[in-house]
Design goal:
Blueprint (H helix, E strand, L loop, with lengths): L1 E4 L6 E4 L7 E3 L6 E6 H7 L12 E9 L2 E3 L14 E8 L5 E3 L6 E5 L2 E12 L4 E12 L4 E13 L4 E9 L2 H6 E13 L4 E3 L2 H9 L19
Parallel strand pairs: 6-9, 7-14
Antiparallel strand pairs: 1-2, 1-4, 3-4, 5-7, 8-10, 9-10, 10-13, 11-12, 11-14, 14-15
C-alpha cells in the first residue's frame, strides 16, 4: 500500500499503489508532497540528521560540577571540594516530532543577586512543520527527591527539519539550586502547523522519572506556582 505523508502538517493516509512516485496535494493544508511506498514513507517521517534520536529511549551525559556558579567575578561552585557532577538526561519520544539534537540540562547560577537555572537547548523538528513547542525539565536533588519542573513554551513557526537553539532561563529557589543534581528533559507537547496537538507519552516519561524518584507522581510532570522562600 502506498502512503502520502504531508511534509508540512504531518497528515498521513494510504492511497493506491499506482500513485507511488507521483506528487499529491494534502487534503488538509494543500501542500504538495510525494506518494511513497510504505517502507520509504516510514523512514521519511524522521530526519536523517546524524545527531537526532529516532527511537524512544533516553540519553545521558555529565553536565559538569554540581553547585551554584557565580556569573560575576571568578567562577566557583557552591560545594568546593565535592566531586559530584550534574547528570543530564533527555527522554526521546519521536512521536511528538521533536528531539534534542544533543543531551542538555540546566545549571544553577547566581547573577545580579538572583539565583537562576540556565540551559543551552537545541532541538530539531522531525520532518513536520510546527507552530508551538513545550519543553519540560524535571529536576531532582542529591537525595533523589523531585525539586521542581521547569517548562519552556515557544510559540513560533518551525519549518520541517528545522534546528532551533536557545538559551533558556528560569528563576530558582536557593534551596533547590543547592541540592540540584539530576535533570530529565523532554518535549511535553507540540502544536503542528495544521493545529493538531501531539503530547508525549506520559507513561514513558513517568517510568523514566521513577527510576530517579519512586515517589514521582503524574501531577509532578506539570510546573507548579513558585514557592515562597
Amino acid at each position: 500500500m502506498a502512503i502520502f505523508n504531508c511534509p508540512q502538517c504531518g497528515h498521513s493516509q494510504s492511497v493506491d499503489d499506482k500513485h507511488i512516485g507521483k506528487s499529491a496535494s494534502c487534503p488538509k493544508c494543500k501542500t504538495q508532497g510525494a506518494v511513497q511506498d510504505e517502507a520509504t514513507a516510514a523512514v521519511a517521517q524522521v530526519t536523517n540528521a546524524d545527531a537526532i534520536a529516532t527511537e524512544r529511549g533516553t540519553r545521558s551525559r555529565n553536565g559538569g560540577p554540581a553547585g551554584i556558579f557565580w556569573g560575576l567575578g571568578p567562577k566557583h561552585d557552591y560545594n568546593p571540594g565535592s566531586t559530584l557532577c550534574l547528570e543530564w538526561i533527555v527522554a526521546d519520544d519521536p512521536s511528538v516530532k521533536v528531539c534534542f539534537t544533543e543531551v542538555c540540562g540546566p545549571k544553577a547560577v547566581r547573577e545580579d543577586r538572583q539565583t537562576l537555572f540556565k540551559a543551552e537547548v537545541e532541538v530539531c523538528c522531525l520532518g513536520l512543520g510546527l507552530s508551538a513547542i513545550d519543553l519540560h525539565f524535571l529536576l531532582f536533588s542529591i537525595w533523589g527527591k523531585h525539586l521542581t519542573t521547569l517548562a519552556g513554551q515557544r510559540i513560533r513557526d518551525f519549518r520541517p527539519d528545522e534546528r532551533y537553539k536557545e538559551s533558556m532561563v528560569w528563576y530558582a529557589r536557593d534551596a533547590d539550586a543547592e541540592e540540584f543534581l539530576i535533570s530529565i528533559g523532554y518535549v511535553s507537547r507540540v502544536r503542528t502547523s495544521a493545529g493538531v496537538v501531539i503530547s508525549a507519552d506520559d507513561e514513558f516519561i513517568l517510568r523514566e522519572a521513577r527510576r530517579v524518584s519512586e515517589k514521582f507522581a503524574a501531577e509532578d510532570l506539570e510546573p507548579k506556582p513558585p514557592k515562597k522562600e
